Amino acid sequence: MTQTVSAVGSGVAIVRRPNRVRMLWLLVVVGVLVILVLISLVIGSRDVSLDDIVAALGGSTDNIGQAAVAKRVPRTVLAVAVGAALGLAGGVMQGVTRNPLADPSILGVNMGASLAVVVGIAWFGLATATGYIWTAIVGAAVAAVFVYTIGSLGRGGATPLKLALAGAATSAALASFITAVALPRADISATIRSWQVGGVGGASFGTIGQMLPFFVVGCAICLFSARSLNSLALGDELAASLGERVAIVRGVAAFGAVVLCGAATAVAGPIGFVGLVVPHLCRLLVGVDQRWLLPFSALAGAGLLVVADVIGRIVARPGELDVGIITALIGAPFFIAIVRRQKVRAL
User: Fold this and answer.
1) pLDDT < 70: residue spans in the chain
2) Domains of the chain by start residue, with CATH
3) Over 18-68, what HEC string results?
4) Helices 19-42 & 274-286, crossing angle to 10 degrees?
5) What is the pLDDT of residue 242?
6) Which positions, given as ranges, span the membrane (predicted)?
7) What does the pLDDT read at residue 162?
8) Alpha carbons 46 and 132: distance in angstroms, whole number
């Protein structure tokens, strides 16, 4: 069994693994995710037994343990869905921009979605989950286009550093706008502040059901774009010579990522760094082939958010820390490490 090695823009050699090795890693990641889901059902302010889990999954809520499991099931499902959406969206954004620093939170996409939702709540009486999602998608799309346009100005086009700086500046400005909109509204400011942290507590199957169509559409678009993203990695000119319509490929893939980011932000708040950390770690396992990287990013993103949710319940018992805080603690050092690597220029 042979392995080939190629250099990427980060200056780190990435092993292109045979498909048998990739399939083995896929089984491992799926197995780990299943274990994490079971741990999420067991651990909380009150630990429960396996019997309680089985009974609760069967619809029984006869005791406190079973009732606790019944509450943890939807939040675990939501953590899996949101984590998968953010991990997949991050992988697509890095592929579309060929930027190792691309991430929905760093590029201002999550904050654009947040501002749109807050404005909708405060000024237009937005109240339904579906309305949140549509509004968040529009806000995410506007923010993404704005940041990419600003980052593309000047010599060199949209470099990783320029996009990161444009995204950081845009995120800061949008966060200020959110505060300005929410502060005069005492009736909604507490709810908005809590939502802005990012969390999966209080999840319900009704909310998940309203998010599901957007999640399916966004995932389908992103995964079907994988082969074309491989062509884009060779450079625009070579991709065009291979028959790819570069602008259309970028637009369609970016639209899929925006749909995922908007839906995830609408139901869970602006959770950061999942889309940054996960694709980088997955490249170490399966290489740079987007046909493998994107599904792995979705699975690993789901696992990371479930882990963050479990950690948040453990460290603050009997209360909890929202997953947005945990992912920021994990992701911020990772982001600094990437920025400090002077050889990082593009993927």
Assistant:
1) 1-17, 339, 341-347
2) 74-340 (1.10.3470.10)
3) CHHHHHHHHHHHHHHHHHHHHHHHHCCCCCCCHHHHHHHHCCCCCCHHHHH
4) 140
5) 83
6) 24-43, 76-93, 105-126, 132-151, 163-183, 203-226, 247-272, 292-311, 323-340
7) 83
8) 32
